[in-house]
Amino acid sequence: MPGSDPPTSVAPRRAQRTTSAAPGQTQPPRPRTLVLEATEWRARRATHEARVDAWLAPHLARRQAGEKHPVEDFLFTYYSFRPAQLRRWHPGAGVTLEDGLPDKEYIQTGQGVMLDPTVAARKSTEWIGTLLRRTAGRPAHFGCFGMHEWAMVYRAEGVRHEQVPLRLSPAETDRVVDDNRVRCSHFDAFRFFTPAARPLNLLQPTRETQHDNEQPGCLHANMDLYKWAYKLSPLVASELVADAFALARDIRALDMRASPYDLADLGYEPVRVETPEGRAEYAAAQRAFAGRAAALRARLIAALDRLDGSS
Asked: Across-strand partners of 113?
């Protein structure tokens, strides 16, 4: 089922613990590794590729035609993970692929191939893990009403998405910001605020204070689970990266529907956060996304715990 790892028809085998120590020395045994039989992991790989291809094909066609879509193309332009990287399947750390061939970042074992353990040393696992755990431990807030997108065009001469018109006049758009408290906790949204909007924000987030500010109700913090998942790749299974992509894609649609931009011609009806009804609609959707994000965040934390050997 889309959004979850495919079921397996054959129970995976586990490799035996092995030791390799010089005479007279003692070395702790390696942890057991999961062994996926060839038919199983190839089926998982094919399922992942088909799922990702449904996202990639329209994007690549638009790119070939020189066209842009402010919602569907965002994840491929804002984030640094390339389409080919998203499509490539990895089983995650500690998994041996029966009959697999050695490749970049993989080493040969007696039963197949597995991820080179040294890959973990090149990843920012500690920084990402701290951010995920501290975010998960905070209460969620749902009172921002998407004002971050409005603050990006507040009293501006131009707009970020020039191919899409604003729903309201510039003066009316500015008034929405003036009439609502701006309370953005996410640095990578705040850094795009206009100079006039920055002082209006209740917080002044920085990269250095990111661990202290991010909270699990924030749309952008939850969208960024995709970033942390792919930055941990190939240490985490590609199904998890794809699940995070799917969540980020859905969040992006709400983000733009609640923005000052008019995307009705593209099939996105606005969430009119300038009205009480629109703010209520936004907060309800935000809560639903926070629930989905909490499950993904927990899966990423669990993957990091396994890497640390703490679970």
From this structure: 97, 108
Query: Which region holds residue 271: left if phi is over 0, alpha if psi is between -120 and 50, else beta?
Result: beta
And the tokens for 178? 């003036």
Domain ranges (residues) in the chain? 32-308
In the DSSP assignment, the letter for residue 166 is: B
> For residue range 61-103, what is the model confidence (pLDDT) as tens digits?
999 999 999 999 999 999 999 999 999 999 999 999 999 988 8
Buried b (16+ CB within 10 A) or exposed e, 4-40: ebeeeeeeeeebeeeeeeeeeeeeeeeeebbbbbeeb
Handedness of CA 140, 144, 145, 151 (dihedral sign): negative
Instruction: At 19, give phi and psi (nearest 5°).
Output: -125, 155
Contact 89, 106 (CB under 8 A): no
d(CA 38, CA 97): 7
pLDDT digits (tens, 9 = 90+) for 9-64: 333 444 433 333 333 433 333 445 789 999 999 999 999 999 999 999 999 999 99
Q: Which residues contact 280 (CB under 8 A, 6 or more apart)?
A: none
| pLDDT of the residue at 135 | 98
Question: How many whole angstroms separate alpha carbon 185 and alpha carbon 66?
Answer: 35
| pLDDT single digits (tens) 153-203 | 999 986 665 678 999 999 999 999 999 989 999 999 999 999 999 999 999
